[in-house]
Amino acid sequence: MCPVERSSQRLRLRELTIDDVEGVFAIYGSAEATEHLSFEPRTREQVGQIVAQSVASASADPRTEYALAVVARDMGQLIGFGRIAMDPHQQRAATFGFALRPDAWGVGYGLETVRLLLGLGFEEIGLHRMWGARSPLNKASARTMAAAGMVEEGIIRGHIEKSGRWRDSVVHSILDEEWKP
Description:
Blueprint: E1 5-7, E2 11-15, H1 21-28, H2 44-57, E3 65-72, E4 77-86, E5 93-100, H3 109-125, E6 129-134, H4 139-147, E7 151-162, E8 165-175
Parallel strand pairs: 5-6
Antiparallel strand pairs: 1-2, 2-3, 3-4, 4-5, 6-8, 7-8
Helix pairs in contact: 1-2
């Protein structure tokens, strides 16, 4: 598959480069941005390692992970991070996730990001099923996934350990025949 390049009205989804460390750190290093994610804020060094691994994974054959920059087209600036990872336990299925900088919240970028990721998964990768998990407290993510046509499937109990406590996750999914670009 060629390098990923997808666009919506306001956003562009593209491959990460090593120059994206600061942009990803603005998300993964932020306590606010990672509040509902599965991990504590990362250090700049940890983010550098994540970006380097993501850049390397783009050339794997077969490719099993798509870690991508979400860029605001008008500014040309990285505002988010999206990821699709093939699920080795399900045929033609993948998990996906996304995170945006807090200053990019509340204006519909989340829905545009999810639609770009779903389009990539169904239209280019050829997946049958995509699913994502969210914190039960993340109501904005619940609204975003529902607006993208995803179905809330249920709860994975005690799924994530964060800050020394176990947390549930709510699973949302969508099938290729349900996808409406």
